[in-house]
Every structure is written in C-alpha cells, then in structure tokens.
Write a structure and sequence with these properties.
Elements (H helix, E strand, L loop, with lengths): L7 H12 L2 H13 L3 H29 L5 H6 L12 H29 L5 H13 L2 H50 L4 H9 L8 H14 L6 H7 L7 H29 L9 H13 L1 H38 L3 H21 L10 E2 L2 E2 H27 L3 H9 L4 H26 L5
Antiparallel strand pairs: 1-2
The chain binds phenylalanine (PHE) and sodium ion (NA).
Membrane topology: Multi-pass membrane protein
Family: Belongs to the sodium:neurotransmitter symporter (SNF) (TC 2.A.22) family.
Keywords: Membrane, Symport, Transmembrane, Transmembrane helix, Transport
Length: about 450
C-alpha cells in the first residue's frame, strides 16, 4: 500500500477542514441570532472547551491507539477485547446519512455562487422565492449539483489520505482563511461593525434559556465533527510524531475562531442593511443575498467570495464524512478502495436524492411519513439521536471499559497529570450527564 498516513500539518489541516464547515459559517451565526447573541456565544465557548474538546481528545485517542476503522477501534482498545464494542460503529452509518444531505446543501451553495454572478434577488419577496423555488421546484438543478458534489468526493476519496484528503485541505484551507480574512477586513470598514461586536460579545443574560444551553452543546458537537467516527478515522492515519492533545486543542481553537469571525462578518453585513439577526436558516440564503444585491456590482464580488468560502468549508467537511465508511469497508470486507468508495458514494447519492425530493412540491407528499419529510427524519435521527448517543458511548467506553492506567500512561507521555485528571473526570462523569440531559430534552422527555 502507498504511504497512507497524514503528515503532521496534513492531519491538523484535515481535521480542521472537517470541523470548519457549514456549521461555522451557516449554522453558528443563525443559531447565535436566534438565541440573542453574546450570552449564547459564551455558552458555546464553554460547551466547546469542556464538552466538545474532551470528546475530540477522546476520539483522537481511540483512533491513534487502535489504528483501525471506527467500529473495530473500540473493540481493539477495550479492556476485555469485547466484540460487542464494534457496534459503536453505528456512527459510521449516521455519518453517511448526514453526508447524503450535506452534499445537496453544498449543491445549494453552488447555485448561489451562480446567482451571485448572474444576478442577485433585489426584493425580500424575490429573495425568499429564490430560496423556496430552489428547494421545492428546481429538482433537476439540485440533483445535478448533488451529483457534482458526490463526484468530487469520489475523486478525492479514490486518491486516499495523503494524495487526496491531505492535498485538498492543503489547498482549500489557506484559500478559505484568505477569503474570510478579506471579508473580515471589509466588515471592519462598515459602521455596523461595532454593533456586530456588541451583539456577539455583550452577554444579555435575560436571553439565556434551557434551550439555548442545549443548543450550545448540540452545536459544539456538530461543529467539531464528533460522533460520526471521523476524528477516530483521521487519527488512525495520524503520523507518529503528532501530539494528539495539542492537535485537538488547535483544531478546537481554529474551529471556534472561524465561527466567531463568520459571525462578526455576517452580523456586520446584516446590521449595515438594518436587517434582523433572527432570520434562522434563511439568514445566509435569503437575508445575505438581498444585502449583497443592494451593494451593486461590488456586492456581487463580495457574494462570490462569501459563497466560495462556504463552498470550500463544505467540501473539506464532506470529504471527511466519506472516509469512515470507506476505511470500514476496506478493513471489514477486504475490499479495494475503489469498491469501498463506489458503494459508499452510490448509497449516499441515492439517499440524498430521496431526501431532496422529500422537500419538493411534486414528490414531497410521497416521501413524508409520521408527519415529517424524509429529510427531517434523517436530520432528526442523526443530529438529535445518533450523535448524542455515540458521544455518550465514547465517554462510557473510555471512562469505564478501558484501563485507566493505560490511559494515564499514554496521556502523560504528551501532557501533564493535571490535564489527564481533568479530562478523565469530564469523560467519566460530567460529559455523559450533560449529553444525557441534552438527549432526553431533545426527545421532549424533559425540559
Ligand atoms: N463540523 C462540520 C461543520 O461545522 C459539520 C460536519 C459534521 C462535518 C459532521 C462532518 C461531519 O459544518
Ligand atoms: Na464546525
């Protein structure tokens, strides 16, 4: 086999590429807007530091020790080598389901990239219709771009870890940083910049509810790509000289920085136009295009830059979602990489088409059951059910089914005893309890 491990910088960039995604540039700003700004940002930072980072470190450890796919990894390092731990691999499947819709959402971004060039909507009605029409009417366009995105992922995945994933991130991540930096500088020149900073960093505690605390924890999970075997799989290809604690901290910092910067940029733009911060998911696809169009030709340039940033962030995340399944199939069935990529891609391509059809005007009804569209079911079953469960499983696994002395030895070879003790307490008690509360609340059983 070709050398299929990451270089040190390659691993860090790829993990950061997976983390930095639509969650940072699309979801974080609108969730912050919906939850009143500053106080939510603070809760989010706390959730990342204590919950997100400790699970990130946990997944990183599991992958790097086991050097296997995200299913066998659990078995390999469990105290008793118990075969049942392989079931933790269900998260690989959750990842593929997420990817099937992540792919066509990236497709929407491609459509908006084109709209940015050919002409942006000029009234709020037109902006809303553009978005609604895309989702409910333009099936052909959506399938076309969905296919294009899946094909891109196949192309990268076939090249493997080093020549595919690492190289892609080596190119796209610096470009993404450059665009965001440029947009940040531009937002600083707007009068509304100060207002955006205030909105994001002056906590208004009256806005904090149980829901916003839970939203912060949920977002911490999603934004760091946890609970889908991604970090385990990437870490299994980590080079020997990579410090898994340092790289985890670094990725969490980069991911948080990008979310904050995206928030500052977007709120500066919104406030400059006197727009509201509470538009929800339509923030990026409805509110922003309208503002860009008010800025004329220059606005189109900004729009292209913005949607390129979103596209690059999305692609590097999408690519990371393919690898857990590919590695699993290769190891479990001794498949060739080509076959593994082919099966994975075909499955998610078809599932994605059904999901996008479930939101269309013509086929929506056929693909709606128990009162929700297929897409809503997929989103709910993964983000609200599978992800918290797999985070919980990972905590319980390391906290109770892996030898503490082994963990301690491995951790203290790269960090202090104090850091290990804090991490261990978090993983064993605090994080599983937090996840359990989150989980039961989302299911509507408490709160
Ligand atoms: N972390 C990515 C983001 O913030 C989302 C993602 C989730 C990517 C799961 C891969 C897997 O957008
Ligand atoms: Na993220």
């Amino acid at each position: 086999m070709k050398t299929n491990t990451f270089s040190r910088i390659g691993f860090i960039l790829a993990a950061a590429g997976s983390a930095v995604g639509l969650g940072n540039i699309w979801k974080f700003p609108y969730v912050t807007g919906e939850n009143g700004g500053g106080a939510f940002v603070l809760l989010y930072i706390i959730a990342i530091t204590f919950i997100g980072l400790s699970i990130f470190i946990a997944e990183s450890y599991i992958g790097k020790e086991a050097k296997a796919n995200a299913a066998s990894s659990y078995q390999v390092i469990s105290k008793t080598n118990n075969k049942n731990w392989r079931w933790a691999g269900f998260q690989i499947f959750a990842g593929i389901i997420i990817l099937s819709f992540y792919a066509f959402i990236i497709g929407w971004i491609i459509e908006y990239l084109i709209i940015s060039i050919t002409g942006l909507p000029t009234t709020i009605k037109e902006a809303e219709d553009t978005f609604t029409n895309l989702i409910t009417q333009k099936i052909g366009t959506q399938i076309l771009f969905h296919t294009l995105v899946v094909a891109t992922m196949v192309f990268i995945a076939l090249k493997g870890i080093k020549a595919g994933i690492e190289k892609l991130n080596l190119i796209l991540m610096p470009l993404l940083a450059l665009i965001l930096f440029g947009l940040l500088i531009y937002s600083m020149s707007l009068d509304s910049f100060g207002k955006a900073i205030n909105f994001m960093f002056m906590p208004d505690w009256s806005k904090v509810t149980v829901d916003s605390i839970l939203a912060a924890i949920g977002q911490a999970f999603f934004t760091l790509s946890l609970g889908m075997g991604i970090i385990i799989t990437y870490s299994a290809s980590m080079g020997k000289d990579t410090n898994f604690i340092k790289s985890s901290v670094f990725v969490a910092i980069v991911d948080t920085a990008v979310a904050l910067i995206a928030g500052i940029i977007i709120f500066s733009f919104l406030f400059a136009a006197g727009a509201k911060s509470t538009a929800g998911p339509g923030l990026v696809f409805i509110s922003l295009p309208l503002i860009f169009s008010e800025w004329g030709i220059f606005g189109q340039v900004i729009a292209v830059a913005f949607f390129c940033a979103l596209l690059f962030a999305g692609i590097t995340s999408a690519v990371s979602l393919v690898e857990p399944s590919v590695r699993y199939l290769i190891e479990k069935f001794q498949m060739s990489r080509i076959k593994a990529v082919f099966y994975t891609a075909t499955f998610l391509w078809i599932l994605g088409i059904f999901a996008l059809l479930s939101m269309s005007a013509d086929y929506g009804e056929m693909l709606t059951f128990f009162g929700k569209s297929l897409f809503d079911h997929m989103d709910y079953l993964t983000s609200s059910v599978a992800l918290p469960i797999s985070g919980f499983v990972t905590c319980i696994f390391l906290g109770y089914f892996v030898d503490k002395n082994v963990l301690k030895t491995k951790f203290t070879s790269v960090t202090s005893v104090a850091v290990f003790n804090i991490w261990y307490a978090l993983i064993r008690y605090i994080v599983p309890i937090a996840i359990a509360i989150l989980f039961f609340n989302k299911l509507g059983l408490i709160g």
